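Retry 2 of 3 after timeout on previous attempt. Resubmitting C-alpha cells to design endpoint.
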C-alpha cells in the first residue's frame, strides 16, 4: 500500500485520503486495541493464582493492576506525544506494540511482587506509545464530521479485547487450572499463570507487523510544533472546555477500572462462580451488547449534530453516564446472581454509548498540530487517576473499610456511589462551554486547524 508521506501542508493543499485507506488504518488500530486489552484483561482473571503463588495482598494486587501498569507512563507519555506530533506515527505505534507484548510475556517469568510490578510498568510504557499517535494519525486520515463513527468502530477493538479476554482467557485459565503446571515448547514446565501471560503476549507481535503496512498520512497542519508551555497555556485558556472533559474521564475511569479489575473476583467470592463461567457470561455481555451500544451512541451524536446541537458528542456522554452509574451502584447489591448479570448488561449498553462520542469530543475541538500532546495530557489523567487509582481505591475499601475480601461487592458499589455522581455533575457543567468551542472550531476544520 503506497504511503501518503510528504511535507506538512494545510488541508486545502491535500484532499482527504480515500475511505479505504482510512478504514484500513482503523482496522489495524482496532486490532492493536484488542491485544492491548487482552494484555490488560488477563491480570484480573489471574488474581487468585497470583495471590496464592506470589503471596500478595489485595492492595498489592491492585498496585500491579493499576499503579504498576502506569508507573512510568507519567514520564514517558508526554515525550512520546511530542514525537507523535512531528515524527512517524505508525512507527511509534509499532514499537509500542512490540514493547508491551514482550513485557507481557516477561510477566510470565516474574518471581514475586516487585518483578511482576516492573513488568507491568514496562507494559504501560509500551501502551503509552499508542494513544496520542493513534489519534493524531486518524486526525489526518478521517474528516472531523466522520470522527464519532470512526472512533466508535475503532473501539470495537476495546470491546472485543475485553470480551475475548473474558471468554477465551477465562476458558483457557479454567482448562489450565486443572493442573498446577503446564508444559510449553522450549520452556518446559511452568506454572499455569505463567503460561497464560506468555500465550497472551505473543499475538501483539503479529499486529505489530500489520501496523508497519499502515500508511503515514500527510500532516494536514503546517507550522512549528508547539512547546509544552504552549500546550498547557492552550488548555488553561480553554479550561472551561477541557477541564470537565479531563476531570470526568479521569474520575469515571477510576470507578470503571475498579469494576473491571475486581469484577471477576466479585463473582468468584460472592457467587462462587468458576473462572470459565465468569468469562463466558460477562464476555458474551461485552461482545453482544457493547457493539450495539457503541453504534447507537455514534448514531445519536450524528443525529444531534444534524439537528444543530454543537454539544452533540457531550450530550451522548451525559446520557450514557445517566444509564451506567445507577446500574453499577445496584449491580453488586442484588440478592440473586441473575439480577446482578441483568444490571451489568444494562450498564455495558449504557457505558458503550460514550465510546465514540467521548473521544470525538476531544478531537474536534483540538488543533491538529497539538492533538498528540493534548491527547497525552488527557490520557495522563485517564491512566494515572483512572487506571492508577481505580483498582487500589476499591481494594482499600475491601481491606480497610469492610475488612473482608468477601465484601468486595460493597466496596465496588461504594466507589461508584461516591465517584459516579461527582463525574456526572462535572461533565454537565462543561456542556455549554463545549458547544461554544465546537461552533468556533467548525469554520477551521477544512482550513488546517
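Retry 2 succeeded. Sequence:
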Amino acid at each position: 500500500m503506497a504511503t501518503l508521506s510528504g511535507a506538512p501542508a494545510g488541508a486545502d493543499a491535500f484532499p482527504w485520503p480515500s475511505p479505504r485507506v482510512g478504514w484500513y488504518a482503523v482496522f489495524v488500530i482496532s486490532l492493536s486495541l484488542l491485544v492491548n486489552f487482552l494484555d490488560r484483561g488477563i491480570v484480573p482473571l489471574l488474581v487468585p493464582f497470583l495471590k496464592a503463588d506470589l503471596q500478595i495482598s489485595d492492595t498489592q494486587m491492585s498496585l500491579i493492576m493499576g499503579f504498576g501498569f502506569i508507573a512510568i507512563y507519567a514520564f514517558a507519555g508526554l515525550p512520546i506525544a511530542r514525537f507523535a506530533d512531528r515524527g512517524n506515527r505508525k512507527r511509534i505505534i509499532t514499537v509500542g506494540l512490540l514493547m508491551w507484548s514482550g513485557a507481557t510475556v516477561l510477566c510470565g517469568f516474574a518471581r514475586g511482587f516487585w518483578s511482576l510490578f516492573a513488568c507491568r510498568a514496562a507494559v504501560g510504557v509500551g501502551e503509552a506509545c499508542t494513544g496520542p499517535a493513534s489519534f493524531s494519525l486518524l486526525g489526518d486520515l478521517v474528516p472531523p464530521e466522520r470522527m464519532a463513527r470512526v472512533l466508535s468502530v475503532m473501539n470495537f477493538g476495546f470491546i472485543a479485547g475485553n470480551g475475548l479476554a473474558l471468554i477465551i482467557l477465562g476458558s483457557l485459565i479454567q482448562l489450565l487450572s486443572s493442573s498446577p503446571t503446564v508444559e510449553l515448547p522450549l520452556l518446559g514446565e511452568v506454572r499455569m499463570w505463567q503460561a497464560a501471560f506468555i500465550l497472551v503476549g505473543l499475538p501483539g507481535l503479529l499486529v505489530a507487523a500489520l501496523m508497519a503496512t499502515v500508511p503515514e498520512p500527510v500532516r494536514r497542519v503546517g507550522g512549528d510544533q508547539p512547546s509544552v508551555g504552549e500546550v498547557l497555556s492552550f488548555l488553561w485558556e480553554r479550561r472551561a472546555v477541557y477541564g470537565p472533559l479531563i476531570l470526568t474521564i479521569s474520575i469515571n475511569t477510576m470507578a470503571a477500572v475498579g469494576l473491571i479489575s475486581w469484577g471477576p473476583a466479585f463473582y468468584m467470592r460472592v457467587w462462587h462462580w468458576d473462572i470459565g463461567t465468569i468469562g463466558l457470561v460477562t464476555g458474551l455481555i461485552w461482545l453482544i451488547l457493547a457493539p450495539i451500544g457503541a453504534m447507537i451512541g455514534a448514531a445519536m451524536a450524528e443525529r444531534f449534530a444534524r439537528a444543530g446541537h454543537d454539544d452533540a458528542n457531550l450530550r451522548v456522554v451525559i446520557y450514557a453516564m445517566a444509564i451506567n452509574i445507577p446500574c453499577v451502584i445496584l449491580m453488586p447489591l442484588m440478592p440473586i446472581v441473575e439480577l446482578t448479570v441483568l444490571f451489568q448488561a444494562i450498564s455495558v449498553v449504557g457505558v458503550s454509548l460514550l465510546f465514540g462520542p467521548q473521544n470525538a469530543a476531544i478531537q474536534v475541538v483540538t488543533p491538529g498540530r497539538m492533538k498528540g500532546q493534548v491527547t497525552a495530557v488527557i490520557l495522563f489523567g485517564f491512566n494515572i487517576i483512572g487506571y492508577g487509582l481505580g483498582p487500589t481505591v476499591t481494594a482499600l475499601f475491601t481491606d480497610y473499610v469492610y475488612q473482608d475480601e468477601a465484601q468486595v461487592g460493597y466496596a465496588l458499589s461504594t466507589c461508584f456511589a461516591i465517584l459516579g455522581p461527582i463525574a456526572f455533575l462535572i461533565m454537565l457543567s462543561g456542556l455549554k462551554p463545549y458547544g461554544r468551542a465546537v461552533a468556533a472550531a467548525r469554520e477551521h476544520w477544512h482550513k488546517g486547524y
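Attempt log closed. Confidence is low (pLDDT under 50) at residues 1-12.
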